[in-house]
Amino acid sequence: MPCNALAGNGPFHFNYGNVVLSGEIGLADIRGQEFLYWNSGEWHNHKASQLDWKSIEVTLLTIGLDAYIDQDWSVKSRFDIGAGGDGHMLDRDWASKLHSDWSGRAVMPDTNLNHYFSGSIQLDRIVASTGTSSFAIGAGFRYTDVKWTAYGGYGIESSGDPLFRDRHPIWPGDRKVVSNRQKIPIGFLSLSGQHVIGDLSVSGGIRAGLTIGFEDIDDHWGERRIYHDLYTAPTMGADVAVSYAVTPSASLYLRGSFDRVFQTRGDERSYATVPGKFNGKFNGQWENTVASAFQVMSVSFGLKAAF
């Protein structure tokens, strides 16, 4: 029933019969990875490049809308928006045949999170219930869109064998160097539960799924744009929430969430660019030469009020 389902839904609540609207504010840690592999000449499945993107202490706003159809069935939706935070990007290359360690490294401390959006919808059915506990299974769809841009930075580069780590480039802070965008559709199954002990409610769930058309867009401004058409990747997620009723209509609330898209390989399409923009000239296409991964962790907190 909606009154039971309110526990653990969000810091701010408005209950309209069988519909529950919730809102949250919190902090998120958002990370993405890109990989490039060489499969030509003397190189076979050689990791040539790895880019690690991250934003920590991202402000995360969440809106949820749940509709309870009857005693057992419900439809739940959620939408996350992330902004700000402290961003960083590390780019490493392995392009030397004489050294196994990285041959080039670029550090981009001025990395901005352009946007982070994530929305999900799922259908749940309660399969077991007691007076204080319930367990549900569900199926749903989630879509995530995230983009970073790195400005300026410093690095170490190699001119080519036998020269190794002989160059030390610096990029000015106003120069847009690299951007990365990941678009991640996911279909998933879930198992969730809730237990109520007096004024305390504990709820949580786990999710497992697969990506459906995962795409990664990598812009090295002034050089090239690379599209990663990625193969299906396994995903997992979990969340837990604790809610304590301070008054009959208000509760303190804390929720933690984790989602990961595991690394998956894919095909590369490369296009030429000119400084600052994309001009669309096709460079070529290669199979099984790129890979990507994604992860987000968040903690939300605040006050939950029921009306």
TrEMBL record:
<protein>
    <submittedName>
        <fullName>Outer membrane protease</fullName>
    </submittedName>
</protein>
<dbReference type="Pfam" id="PF01278">
    <property type="entry name" value="Omptin"/>
</dbReference>
<keyword id="KW-0645">Protease</keyword>
<dbReference type="InterPro" id="IPR020080">
    <property type="entry name" value="OM_adhesin/peptidase_omptin"/>
</dbReference>
<dbReference type="GO" id="GO:0004190">
    <property type="term" value="F:aspartic-type endopeptidase activity"/>
</dbReference>
<dbReference type="InterPro" id="IPR053724">
    <property type="entry name" value="OMP_A26_sf"/>
</dbReference>
<dbReference type="GO" id="GO:0006508">
    <property type="term" value="P:proteolysis"/>
</dbReference>
<dbReference type="GO" id="GO:0009279">
    <property type="term" value="C:cell outer membrane"/>
</dbReference>
<dbReference type="InterPro" id="IPR000036">
    <property type="entry name" value="Peptidase_A26_omptin"/>
</dbReference>
<keyword id="KW-0378">Hydrolase</keyword>
